[in-house]
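Quick illustration, no need to memorize.
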Amino acid sequence: MTPLKKQQKQELKSKYINRELSWLKFNDRVLLEAQNIDNPLYERVKFLSIAGSNLDEFFMVRVAGLYSQIKQEVESLSSDGLNPEEQMSEVVQETKNLLVKQNLIYKNLISQLKKNYITLVKPQDLSKNEKIKLKNIFYEEIFPLLTPSAIDPAHPFPFIVNQGRAVVMKLKKKNKKRLLNSIIVIPKALSRFIEIDGGKNYKKYVILDDIISFFSSEIFPDHNLESKMIFRVIRDSDVEIQEEAEDLVRSFELALKRRRIGDIVRLEVIKNSNKDLIKFITNKLEVNPDYIYETEGLVGIEDIDQICKLKNSKLRFKNFNPREVERLKEFNNNFFDTIKQKDLVVHHPFETFDAVIEFLNQAAYDKKVIAIKQTLYRTTLDSPIVKALISAAENGKTVTALIEIKARFDEEANIQLARSLEKAGVQIVYGFAKYKTHAKSSLVLRRELGKIQTYVHLGTGNYHPVNAKIYTDLSLFSSNKKIAGDVEKFFNYVTGYSKPRNLNKISISPINLRITLNKCIDIEISNAKKGKKAEIWAKMNSLVDPIIIDKFYEASNAGVRIYLFVRGVCCLRPGVKDKSENIVVKSMIGRFLEHSRIYCFANGKEMPNRNAKVFISSADLMPRNLNRRVELLVPIENSTVHEQILDQIMLANYLDNKQSWHLDPTGNYKKIKYSKDDSFSAHEYFMHNPSLSGRGKAKLKIRPKKLNLRLIKNDTKSS
């Protein structure tokens, strides 16, 4: 590939924000919630843990991809014109900057925890009696699981699994000059934090890593400890499958075994660790010295929330119980009667996810139901949805489950799930080898008065019972014949490769979802040129696709006002003169993880309005979603549901200033200013107001004129 000229690179950089750097900015926003004093202390610790877990996954997949490209001397460029080496260089630097901030937040939180009677102590700082107790714990619970390994020609260096920790020691033989390097791989079965003292109102912990170092003389009684270092490794965990694989499941099982021994892409060490030991470890593990990252106090920061065990309600968010779905009560909680009357939308987690479970449970036991078809992307073996499908099969229904075994980090669980369902008599389909099936859908066929009536559930999220409690998502239930007919064609597509023709309402990627979005944007461009109201409101997790971004730029230049609510990665540069002056990008980070995808187009009138085109989708605006995944884009045409999504959910996202960040043209995010008098939190609004699906719902009557983008410094709300 011919290298880009400096001017070409600058042009690309002025158009697009680098995807990897945008992701690090997202994790920075998550991390800053760990110092936001509006959040209770335990929740702040949890945000720190989440930021650490996010970073692990980022390295396991995204950074590992760059690492692989560099090794293979691939010269492909990112949308902003950087080659893999240039991207890796910037990622390494930004990650180290992020870890500096993480270290400061960690120290601050440890101090705050101590004030609330939760303390982390070093073994050497314990009292005499506590040391005796710790020694007993060491011999009874820790020592039997340890396998100390001397490193010499007779003892090879042990394998360190992905996210595994180890203690490396330099030891000196007593009364001799001989030095010995030894390593102890820390078993994952052991608790990370050992409680040494505690009661109802206080807890005192010692970190396992420190305990092992402290008792080195018990492990190596003939040696003195000269120096020691704790480290942790992150490995390449992406899974590659050949599209022509004859047995997809078998191929994945082999790939998952390879994942466990992937190349190391990050080596975590405690700050100011012994340089000789760092050199020893990097040589043995063959790690690039640039990929060494220093932390303070703890490697593997995602474990930190394990110490939050005091039962103190003041340290957690106030308990929240999702509401029941009001409209179901009008029909004695009968889903089929309710849906037949008109479409129903449920807003999770503010309204209970049990509605989705109950829909399938009723289908499983309803004598009129003859068949159920279901997609499963992420769920659990003990999921109530899985149990409902098994019950349906046992009750004589024809049940088909499309299980996406390519769902990252859930591959193994999904293979087990498939085998469990198959044993119960469920027909299992794995979809395409080439594409991931990311669409979320249930289809129920019911015989009514001698005819087949179809009921569907279409979601923006997944069917994972844990995620459903913290992810904001939408569930649409419908018996609309045209929508149901399209869903039937969708299932035929993914089970039998029968490419759907003449779709009535729904768009499917990679077939026509992109085309539908482009047409909607073109209509707004045309309206703007005609002097009509032209506006786009779009909510998603990620905006990466350069073609869609360029389309937004075209619309902005035509005079279309565009408001984008992008929780995570955003490669579009808003507010750039002659390019994106009419585009505003907000990111909401709060108690719940914003996950729903909603796309709204004004259609000639000021937003929000009844004539606007509104869609919900399983798809983010990324090349993979539009080109390499099976996704659904569903129009919302029922007037009640349309109002609930546009005039409630999207308007609340528009108005939110308490949890929102504004993206500026440089790629930086700033917190939006608010005062007590004009603060508005979308999450709090939906937690404390009546169900959207019920009568007498609390409407947001504020009609937006101009989005308030007063900004506050990132540290204003910190402790």
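The longest helix spans residues 84-115.
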